[in-house]
């Protein structure tokens, strides 16, 4: 399922170049992933009950177009691929004109809470990729 999050660029997210600081894009993506987990009823407590947590291990991001204060952005998040203990979410940030501002592939791993070792992706999460 593809999930969208709307946001408006705030003044505190702008750097000395007058556009959104590169690190803020990563924060926008994180907000988008949280929205995706929420929309799929995969709250932290669900994972905790299953004895696992998710850890982001890689983010491949391409910055395509600058964003400026007051811009209205849409962050979309959707499943891309899944392995034994890892999965990839595809994310895009587009502006109000439909222009692609950034896109990313974000790899996460499910980890056993107690052993801190990788753990097979739980069925509740795996089902969102089918």
TrEMBL record:
One of its GO terms (molecular function) is fatty acyl-CoA hydrolase activity. It holds the Pfam family 4HBT_2. Keywords: Hydrolase. The keyword ATP-binding does not apply. It comes from the Bacteria. Gene3D superfamilies: Hotdog Thioesterase. PANTHER family: 4-HYDROXYBENZOYL-COA THIOESTERASE FAMILY MEMBER, NOVEL THIOESTERASE SUPERFAMILY DOMAIN AND SAPOSIN A-TYPE DOMAIN CONTAINING PROTEIN (0610012H03RIK). Belongs to the 4-hydroxybenzoyl-CoA thioesterase family. NCBIfam families: YbgC/FadM family acyl-CoA thioesterase. This is Thioesterase superfamily protein. It comes from Paenibacillus curdlanolyticus YK9.
């Amino acid at each position: 399922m593809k999930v969208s999050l709307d946001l408006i660029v705030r003044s505190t997210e702008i750097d000395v170049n007058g556009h959104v600081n590169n690190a803020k894009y990563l924060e926008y993506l994180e907000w988008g992933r949280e929205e995706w987990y929420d929309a799929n009823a995969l709250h932290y407590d669900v994972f905790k009950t299953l004895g696992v947590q998710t850890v982001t291990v890689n983010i491949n991001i391409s910055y395509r177009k600058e964003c400026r204060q007051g811009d209205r952005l849409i962050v979309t998040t959707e499943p891309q691929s899944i392995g034994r203990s890892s999965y990839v979410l595809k994310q895009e940030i587009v502006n109000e004109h439909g222009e692609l501002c950034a896109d990313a592939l974000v790899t996460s791993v499910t980890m056993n809470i107690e052993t801190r070792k990788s753990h097979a992706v739980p069925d509740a999460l795996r089902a969102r990729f089918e």
